[in-house]
Amino acid sequence: MHTSLATSAGRADRRNEDFVGAVPGAVVLLDGAGIPGAESLCRHGVAWYTHRLGGALLGQLSPDDGRDLGAILAAAIDEIAAAHRHTCDIADPSSPQATVVLARAHRGRLDYLLLADSFLVLDQAHGGPQVITDEREVIARRDCSAPLSGVGRETPEYDSIRASCARALRARRNRPGGYWIAKDDPRAALEAVTGSRRLADLNGIALFSNGASRIVSPYGRTDWPGVLELLAADGPAGVIRRVRQAEAEAGGGPDGPAPDDATVAYCPYLSR
Known about the structure:
By secondary structure, the protein is an alpha+beta fold. The chain folds into 2 domains: 2-134 and 180-269, PPM-type phosphatase domain (Phosphatase 2c, domain 1, 4-Layer Sandwich), CATH 3.60.40.10; 136-179. 33% of the residues lie in helices and 25% in strands. The strands form 2 sheets. Strands 1-10-9-6-7 form a 5-stranded antiparallel beta sheet. A 5-stranded antiparallel beta sheet has the order 2-3-4-5-8, covered by helices on one side. The longest helix has 27 residues, at 224-250.
């Protein structure tokens, strides 16, 4: 499986909290998350967590023994939790965590797993691209943010309601009826979105962190078929470059998203 990778930090003064890597036949992408200023909970930080978890996943995938991807993710989560359980408050909802996308070509099939809001794009041999993501976090965030509707920004009321919304969202994390993300509990891996496709039905695949997917939404610079065309022409770095251009032109206004870490993996040739 030929793989091209690119990643870019959203801010020059902060470590990139995404992770991307590949071994023969498999690729891993993580998008780190945590609460700014939560160093009192975990002295290592979000970038440490994503890089350690990503490395553990690559190690688990290297043998190419066909183990279930959920079992591989659960083992990796447990390994990293054990590495800092005795020094950090890993059970706190604000401690480091990460979205996960795994894809593996094995015995003529592509197996995949997603946890939280990153993206896997299947370039289908017949028909347009199939975009797969775990929508539960987006749904939970929308529900929890509903009280902010109609409230003026930059007011004490807005700040108070926003803080309440953030607490409500954290309370839904890794809970039935909420959403699931890689953190301290390996049981989250059992809740991942998973699937399998015949390699013969695919021309290739692409993995996107949330920051890189912004080229489609909210910036609307292209659609997903256009993204595949852009990847074929300019590779993952070309996609990220256009995301940065869109961010610069948006000007970082109060209604737009702040620059985010952006990461893309592109696999145009899948082993049969």
